[in-house]
Amino acid sequence: MTADTQSRFATLTLKEVTVTKRLFCVALFLAAFFIVTVPALAWNGARQDYTTSDGCQVCHQSGQPSAAPKVFNAWAATKHGTDSEAANAAKSIPAGSVCAGCHTANFDPTKSSPVPTATTYAFNTALPTPVATKTTVAWGASPSTVASPQALGNGSFSELDIGCSSCHYGASVPGSLSDTGNDVNDTAHTAPYTDLANAEICGACHSRFSYTVNTYTVNPIPSPTASQTTLIQPQMAIGYPMLGVNYQPLSNFLNVAAPGWQPTPNPSATGTAFGQLQTYWTVDGTPTKWQETGHDGSAAQYPEWNSEKHAAALTNLKKAVGSNPPAACLQCHSTDYRIAANDAKPTGTQAKYGVTCVACHAPHDAGTAKGVWSDEYDAQLVGNPANSSDVCTQCHTEQAFTGESPSPVATGLPAAGTLVRYNTTEVMNGTGAIGVPQGLPGVHDQKCVDCHMPPTSFSRGSAQLGGNHTFEIITPKDANDASPVPVVTSAATSTPTATTSPWASPTPIVTTYIDESTMPYSACSTCHNNNVNSTATPQPILTTTPSPQPVGKIAVTVTRVMQNQGDKALWLQDTLDQRQASMHAQYDAVTSALHAAGLRMGFIQPVASPAKGVSVDQSYVTWLNGVLNGLGAPSWNTAEVLWQDGYTDWTYVAGEGSWGIHNWQYDSLVIQAALNFANRVDTTKQVVTLKAYKSLLLLNAIDIFSGTVTPATKGTITIQRKSSGNWLAWKTVTVGSTGHFSIKVKMTKKGTYYLRAFYPAKPPYAGGISAQIKVVVK
User: What is the pLDDT of the chain when averaged over all its residues?
Assistant: First the structure.
């Protein structure tokens, strides 16, 4: 434990582990006492069964004798559990339930009563006689701290920290009826551990600008203009039973924002301050998945994640391979499988969750990894890697498929004929393909987060530097073309003089400045260029209203359009487009070559209109599985190995999905190797031999002509005789299953014979011709 942490624990009050709590009998006595003496209990926050973290500390703190996981100390050092963070969060309560719902634990907006804490007086000197205006500049809340134990108080929240029960729902702790709260279902201890993989637990708060299904009448929040808001829809799932016997889906409690979402369920509660809906960038008039309205560090990870492929990883897997995927697939496609103990892993049928929050993040451990764009954020990554991208490479690493089950390519290269997928790590490192040099890392190696999680949103005039969780590449063009939004709006006042205007008056000119911007980053500009280093000059547009100008106030609006606030690395867009187009074209050429060769070799069955790429992929794999599973591994001949080498490299390029961007140099070598392998299959011929038993013999003597065809196939050999420079058919003989042939011929004409054996094309091989031999008959 660090000195800071030790100091923090030394000053805790609610979280102290007292001797009384450790003595079970005394705890029961206290519980019984409060039940008897206080028949009508109040409680802090929304849920009476919320168990405060000091109740969990009894067993889960380091040094306690129980066998419970010792996670309390590590959690207490995270921003969810740090008192300094929570104390700042408590200050947000006066701003309404839209803030306090997520910044405190078990918040109840109906129990929050804002009260003024500071008042200032401003003087409007623009008027002939300055008038003092009373302005409330700060608000507190009553109660603003937890004044009583959970089961005895009536505060608006249960504890300052985002406590244990914020995620684990609640527990039954000895003595908790009197001080820490009590969950009679003991959900934290009885709910299946694997249910903690449910991303909805995190989504209850990490869904910025989402709103509760139910509405709540809350105490009004005054403003300097004396207007009041009597209804604000909180941005959290109040009382959400995320685990245990009372579990309900998050959608029963929270309307999670999505692109195109309309003002609902209560448009009257919306506005620019507290009721604002989530907004999304639009490109060419179409809403994207990327959010333009943010929060410090962003706070909408759940709806972003819910829109992309990680969320559907298990669902899509089951669609592809059936309802009971093998463990080798679940290791990466199912987080509940991933976090379960080795002796309690769910089956494929039992697995419920795709790649969710806790697949990458450790809720109980702040770790040392910081945000890529701001070191104020703790990434809290699983395994605490030095590089954030190491979390990605745990699963995005080469898998070789010979059937429905993948297997990691631990060492060396994948076997020829295997289908390669998820090989992003190998592409980045420049390894893992057949027939090309190994160890050619690309410039994007170890840059997963930089490219796939660039910040997208603005808040209070600045870009928010938390990584977005759509994981989709934002091209420079899309970032630059995103609909501009006002990011800074300010007003300045001045008093005109008689010399500046014939209608001058004491009424001020009001000048409004509006700064607009597009998306702050693209996937490329996080490294290559960004708006911070931009030299782009805003283009001012001056508008005077009303017109014609009357005597009195003149409102002048100046808009500074900053759509090119940094070029978002737009100069790289052509490079991206050209490289991907080139890679697709080369890939299509390999597809055609493999398809043609595969048909000749019998690896692929002819189809009327094969979809591009599908015939080679599915038909071949089906055939290969039948051979490997039914007949055992055969001894492949040269042509078969060439085809399979090309096939594996072909899947290598498609399997990682960047089409040359992850590592252009290496992918280019791989796709060229694949085409070379496929083209070499076209020239592969069977080897044919021919010999005579005697090369010199008398007229009417019998000679024996024999030979072989390799690889062996049944068919008919034609022995040809050269006549006047042309090869003409002379004798035919059947080739047996062993590839051998032999024929006896009575030589009835004198002369010199030049002979060769010709074997026509026999799929999957091209035809073969032997060397010529010479036979003399006297």
Answer: 78
